[in-house]
Backbone:
């Protein structure tokens, strides 16, 4: 069914035999999913009762399918719940049954019948308008042409994964394909960035759930990331933070500090300059996350993380910016607008150009 | 699949590293929050819910927290959109509510400070329909018509 469903979500769920207790449970878990306080469950219930499933077109460009793999691991809601109950997923290369011309026809039909109301989700970076379009094509069309054609009548664009959000691995020096991010190219539509390599599956579904519940985009930071998930640094939410405060660090992966579970800062942890929800939402159904497994954070949800120095070297900060500025960049409240987007892009470039390794002592003095 | 134990594949958060006896200090602030919430419940009846999955717990923190809270007399299970397991703690008015999916994966784990967890109460809309539901079942059963002194339904 391509056309936007006539029934509200509440009506649809009742038709499926969902009890009122079941609906209350759905709202309680949705609040948790969106990183909202449980006390908001009644407001979510009222909003979900009236919500209508949005049509979603998912475009995959220069990517590894890791973001889709991540999405399929979402457990609350599951991918099946997401597709059948929360959204109408009308186009997705990997997941859809149709192929070839039938698949492209499905995209055009969804665009036509939901003009101005559909969501576009993008994973992967895009060879820019000046790059050789042959680096990445779908059905004989360049990624750039497909993106611009599809977003023209979209309500909003969600860039999933660091490649779509910031260029990611394809854009790493020397960027042979001229890769660009979605926000580099889409200037006249709201763009939400959900970075991560891959992003936490619950964050992807959480952003969609937020749009569904509130009918608008979540509050974003200067890099267009939802503050609910990217508002605090990994470092500030890390359970190993007390060891950092006490000056207890692992110096090698096999030393006593590592065995004691001390802070991984000196092993290259990028937690202090990385904003993401790994420390609380964790991975694999909330089982664990990299730092709990004993590995430093790579900073995969930050711009240019591939080019930001060695993964196992102590964190680097741009010396031209004060650490407060850097640490505040992700937390600063943002609104959707070309001006901020331009500032963010400029800052990304400046950050990359001016990154210099610093010692732990130097950084601690600045902090 | 037969050798694959789902319970081992989807352990409760924090349980994987329960061997760790190190204190990360994250259980204590939650216990203080519960204390404040209990004071509000006693003073004004205000209920509080705490989402434990939004807490930056380290290995063993969740186990440490639930161990301090202990286990009370009441256990309940609600079957709606998968099971929801409710456990009263040793502190009256403090409940652990474990929302699980149809596949028994944890969706959310919350502490409720209330006289009764919200999900155990009948929904007001359901309560309003309760008399009609009972009458319908009574009618379907045929018991009222078969009774020796059957009288017409008052409704």
Residues:
């Amino acid at each position: 069914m391509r056309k936007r469903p006539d029934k509200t979500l509440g009506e649809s769920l009742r038709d499926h035999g969902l009890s009122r207790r079941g609906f209350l449970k759905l709202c309680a878990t949705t609040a948790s999913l969106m990183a909202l306080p449980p006390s908001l469950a009644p407001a979510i219930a009222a909003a979900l009762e009236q919500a209508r499933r949005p049509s979603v077109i998912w475009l995959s460009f220069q990517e590894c399918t890791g973001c889709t793999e991540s999405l399929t691991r979402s457990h609350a809601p599951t991918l099946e719940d997401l597709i059948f109950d929360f959204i109408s997923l009308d186009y997705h290369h990997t997941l859809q049954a149709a192929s070839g011309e039938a698949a492209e026809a499905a995209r055009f039909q969804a665009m036509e019948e939901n003009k101005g109301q559909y969501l576009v989700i993008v994973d992967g970076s895009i060879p820019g308008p000046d790059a050789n379009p042959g680096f990445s094509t779908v059905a004989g069309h360049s990624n750039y042409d497909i993106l611009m054609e599809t977003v023209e009548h979209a309500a909003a664009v969600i860039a999933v994964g660091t490649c779509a959000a910031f260029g990611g691995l394809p854009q790493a020096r020397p960027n042979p394909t001229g890769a660009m991010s979605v926000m580099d190219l889409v200037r006249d539509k709201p763009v939400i960035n959900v970075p991560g390599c891959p992003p936490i599956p619950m964050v992807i579904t959480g952003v969609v759930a937020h749009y569904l519940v509130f009918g608008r985009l979540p509050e974003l930071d200067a890099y267009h990331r939802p503050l609910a998930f990217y508002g605090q640094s990994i470092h500030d939410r890390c359970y190993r933070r007390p060891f950092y405060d006490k000056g207890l660090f692992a110096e090698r992966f096999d030393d006593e500090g590592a065995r004691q579970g001390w802070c991984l800062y000196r092993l290259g942890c990028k937690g202090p300059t990385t904003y993401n929800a790994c420390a609380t939402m964790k991975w694999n159904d909330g089982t664990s996350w990299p730092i709990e497994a004993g590995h430093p954070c790579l900073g995969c949800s930050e711009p240019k993380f591939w080019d930001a120095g060695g993964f196992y070297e102590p964190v680097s900060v741009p010396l031209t910016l004060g650490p407060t500025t850097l640490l505040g960049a992700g937390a600063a409240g943002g609104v959707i607008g070309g001006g901020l987007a331009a500032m963010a892009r400029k800052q990304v470039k400046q950050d990359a150009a001016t990154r210099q390794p610093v010692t732990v002592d130097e950084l601690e003095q600045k902090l | 699949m037969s050798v694959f134990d789902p319970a081992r594949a989807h352990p409760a958060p924090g349980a994987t590293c329960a061997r760790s006896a190190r204190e990360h200090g994250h259980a204590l602030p939650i216990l203080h929050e519960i204390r404040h919430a209990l004071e509000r419940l006693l003073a004004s009846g205000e209920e509080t819910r705490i989402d434990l999955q939004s807490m930056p717990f380290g290995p063993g923190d969740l186990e440490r927290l639930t161990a301090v809270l202990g286990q009370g007399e009441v256990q309940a299970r609600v079957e709606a959109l998968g099971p929801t397991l409710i456990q009263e703690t040793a502190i009256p008015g403090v409940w652990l509510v474990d929302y699980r999916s149809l596949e028994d994966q944890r969706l959310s784990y919350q502490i409720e400070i209330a006289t009764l967890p919200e999900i155990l109460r009948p929904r007001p809309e359901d309560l309003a329909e309760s008399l009609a539901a009972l009458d319908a079942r009574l009618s379907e059963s045929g018991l009222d018509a078969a009774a020796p002194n059957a009288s017409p339904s008052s409704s």
In short: Confidence is low (pLDDT under 50) at residues 318-344 of chain A.
